[in-house]
Amino acid sequence: MTIKSPVLTTTTSLTAMAHPFIGTPGTPFEGGIVLGVNTITGQPEFFNPWAMKESGTLDAMLGLFLGQIKHGKSMAMKVLAIRLMMLTAGFQSMRTVINDYKPEGKESEYAAFSRVAQSVPFRIAEMQVNPLEERLFASKGDKAYELGILNMAKVITEFGKKQKLVGHEYTSLRIAVHMMLQYHPIFWELGLLAKMLRSLTPDQITSYYQTLDGKLKVQLEQRIATVAEFGSLSARTYDGGVTLKERLTQDVSTLVNAADNTNVADIQSAGDRVSSYLEGILHGSFGKMLGSKHSLYEMSTQRAVTKDWRGVDKEAETLMRIIDTSFKTSAIENHQLDLLPHLEIDDEQHKSMGNLIYAETKAFFGEITRGTHMCSLGASHRLASMRKGGVGSELYGYGNTVIDNLGFVGIGRQVNDKTALKELQERYGFTDVQRDNLPHLPKRVFAMKYAEAEPLRFIQVTATSSEIEMGQSESAIRRMRQRPNLGSQEDLEQYAKLNGYELADTPEA
């Protein structure tokens, strides 16, 4: 007797998620939190970045989730974050920072998440924070970490100029910072620095070379040692083939030789120009973000902080990203690790990579953060989004450095672009079949790649009902709650469309 039954059919998406030919499952990790379900074995996959870093499974705790819009990148980061926070990830008190960029009606995308995490919200557009606050640069001795303050002033001023400071302009800034530090720390802020730049005297310029060069030289040499400890400097180059160590060494040489080229009138003129760059920021569209009304130190040391970026335009957002990265870099160099969060969520990470000053600070930060406790979770659409400018440009090189410093990636559905897919294959060890399946991965399924020796793991990130409540915007929650009426073809089609599936035709018996 012949038994007639429907042929088993499925969509490409479902095949990509569950068929055994997609790869090997890998050895499961133990401990930590559940990230999701292994699509091959059906077993839970655990994740503990600190333990995995210690064991060598992760090269660094800088992670990036890639995927098309609405694929589930933000949801994956929220699930990871809330579970790690609940367990405190082995820390007595775990500090978490959430960067929230997307408006969702009257609230922001991470509003529900922030309430669950009991996170203090800060509206960046109205904070008027002081990036030169003394506590951000405190040293073990009596003096603040002057190189950190100088670097913060430099990147902010360069943002105002739209170019890097060189020659007498950089010299005038160094001297003005030195003069500002002679005041009581309660007065340190960008407005005072601008006044110092406009009022440099010949005696101040001469005194600077007699007193401060030696101290900055020592601090620059300490920075070189820090970078050499944390970064793979021999393989990565900047500014036309110069390694980061060589560039910092050149900075020391410039300081030592600058006194021979002192021209008081030129330095004073340069000070006026640099002051105008700063004042353009202080009195422009960024005026409400910078000032001395709130403490950047207090904001950064809360147990859980939500930085609400709503109402901040793209240019202003880039400036604040530069400030944030610069003070964290200074904290690492100065061993102020209490200023670094244990966990940070940084969605839409690619948005500021087109700015040269931000890209440079982000690349430098990636070099020296390997030896810290901070786990950073970022998200972007694809690797190309992190690289701006043409091949061979500084921007492109900095983007590559950020990518090179990643300790792990979660690769979701990708655009069917042969060049982009080939790069992913070569970087992370995809087979041809795995590569070809990337454009068809279902929602919230990610190919997780850790250290080079670890195999790819295809994991479907899962969320409980309570996590869905805090992990989605209000509109997304309504969609998740809707269940299709199995008797209605229209409901099924709508459900498939919202969740990234394709309905297969039902064959005749």
| Overall radius of gyration | 26 Å
Shape verdict: elongated
The portion of residues assigned to helices is 40-55%
As for the CATH topology of the largest domain, it is Rossmann fold
Residue runs with pLDDT of under 50 for 5 or more positions? 1-8, 231-235, 477-481
How far do the termini sit from each other? 15 Å
Mean pLDDT: 78
Give the neighbour order of strands across the main sheet: 2-1-15-14-13-3-12-11-4-10-7
What's the CATH first level of the largest domain? Alpha Beta
For the biggest sheet, the summary is:
11 strands, mixed
Instruction: Tell me the number of strands.
Output: 15
- Relevant CATH superfamily of the largest domain: P-loop containing nucleotide triphosphate hydrolases
Structural class of the helix and strand makeup? alpha/beta
User: How many domains make up the 3D coordinates?
Assistant: 2
In what range is the share of β-strand residues? Answer: 5-15%
Mind telling me which CATH architecture of the largest domain this is? 3-Layer(aba) Sandwich
Count of discrete alpha- or pi-helical segments spanning 4 or more residues: 20
